[in-house]
Amino acid sequence: MGGELAIKLAVDAGSAGLTALAVAPLIAAFDEAITKSASGGSLWGSLGGRLNSIVSQPAEFFGSVAFIWMWIVYAATYATSNSLKSIEASTGVKLGFLSTFCVTIVNMSCGIAKDAAYAKLFGSKSGKDGMTVSTPPAAYFTWFLRDLLAFTFILTLPPIIKELFGMPEDLAKFTTPVLAQYFTTPLHLLGFNMCNMPGASLGQQFAAMRPGFFSTVAARQLRIIPPYSIGGILNGKLLAAAPMLLSMAGKTKGA
């Protein structure tokens, strides 16, 4: 069983890495644009420029720190989810909420670290070295609250929405993170404003997010599509195809 589980875990990691490679470019483009807009840049202009550079300068983009950070977030998230499912299947032990908790913690930890990196890369240049000042603890706490609220929506609301509106389960699961953006975006922007506006009052930081608030909400809602639809489908397809590919490889090796 140990050898078989090891192979499954390797397949899980490979599927996660390939899935993250597919979804991370678009998500990175959105997050870069949102971060730049939080410090006064043009959200849609930045997004268009970055999407264009993915096509025109792929080597530069895929080698960038911004892309690598985003790849890490989703590779780690998908790998954790895949691995825990394989462990459940191999051992017969149902992890239940523990599995959801582990995936949530990995996603939150990597995502918050990524946000801190993006604040330094794309935020207001206020440090002597041309980088933003270090991320204050309050920003980390604000992003933690954002993710806690987001996962509360994602984990608790789908069955409620399904029951109230008679929605298919998959549609309900897709709808909740979209709705969550109206509540999580203020915390998302507040964390960046704490980095961009050191010394400003909380009221000033909230006031700074008002002009582009609904554009940012829309961008964050669009950002959800790659990981929740494309990523989920692709990861599932890769995992489903893996046994057949491994069998073919074994036959070729033995021939």
First-last Cα distance: 25 Å
Domains (count): 1
User: Portion of residues in helices?
Assistant: over 70%
Largest sheet: none
CATH class category: Mainly Alpha
Q: Please tell me the overall pLDDT.
A: 88
Portion of residues in beta strands equals under 5%
- Under CATH, the topology is which? Mitochondrial carrier fold
Structural class: mainly alpha
Helical run tally: 10
For the record, the CATH architecture stands as: Alpha/alpha barrel
| Shape assignment | globular
CA radius of gyration: 20 Å
Kindly state the number of beta strands: 0
Quick structural overview:
By secondary structure, the chain is mostly helical.
Describe this structure in words.
The chain has 255 residues and is mainly alpha-helical. It has one domain (2-254): Mitochondrial carrier fold. Helix content is 84%, strand content 0%. The protein has helices spanning 2-38, 43-56, 58-62, 65-91, 97-122, 137-165, 169-196, 202-208, 213-223, 225-254. The model is unreliable at 126-130 (pLDDT under 50).
